[in-house]
Each structure stands twice: as C-alpha cells, then as structure tokens.
Amino acid sequence: MTDQEIIKAIDIVDRLGGMTVNERLYACGLMDEFDKALIGDKTKAKKILELLGVDKPSIEKIVIE
C-alpha cells in the first residue's frame, strides 16, 4: 500500500480523535498493513500511526526499534 492509499483510507473516516489506536487502524482498514509494516518496515509503521494522529511518545512505545 502506498502512502497516498494510506492517506486516502484515513481521510474517509471521521472523528479518529476519540478512538484507541487499534480502533483507528481497524476503522481505516489499515490493521493488516500496519501489522506487516511493524514487522518489516518500522518507518512505515511510524508513518501510519503519525497519519492517524497518534502522539510521538505513544508511537515510540508501540514501534520499538
């Protein structure tokens, strides 16, 4: 999935702010993409979380280098 496709998936969903990280990933259809990125491309995993509006300290806890 390209960055543009990820952004498009996120833009479709309203009000991500009140959701947990898992809820945001699920609502945007990015759960599988994130899981793959978490294993093979940490930079992409961080980018997905950043685009979902997850704060930097939480991203660092979720994506362990």
Number of DSSP-assigned strands: 0
Number of domains: 1
Largest sheet: none
Class by alpha and beta content: mainly alpha
Low-confidence stretches are none
Gap between N and C termini, in Å? 22 Å
- Please indicate the percent range of residues in DSSP E strands (runs of 2 or more): under 5%
- Overall mean pLDDT: 93
The shape is globular
SSE topology string: HHHHH
Summed up, the helix count is: 5
The residue fraction in helices comes out at: 55-70%
Rg from Cα: 11 Å
Task: Give a short summary of the structure.
By secondary structure, this protein is mainly α. It has five helices and no strands.
Question: Can you put this structure into words, describing what you see?
Answer:
The structure is a single chain. This protein is mostly helical and 65 residues long. The chain has one domain. Helices cover 68% and strands 0% of the residues. The protein contains five helices and no strands. It has helices spanning 3-12, 21-27, 31-40, 42-51, 56-62. Helix 3 (31-40) packs antiparallel against helix 4 (42-51). The longest helix is centred in the first third of the chain and has 10 residues, at 3-12. It starts with a helix and ends with a helix.
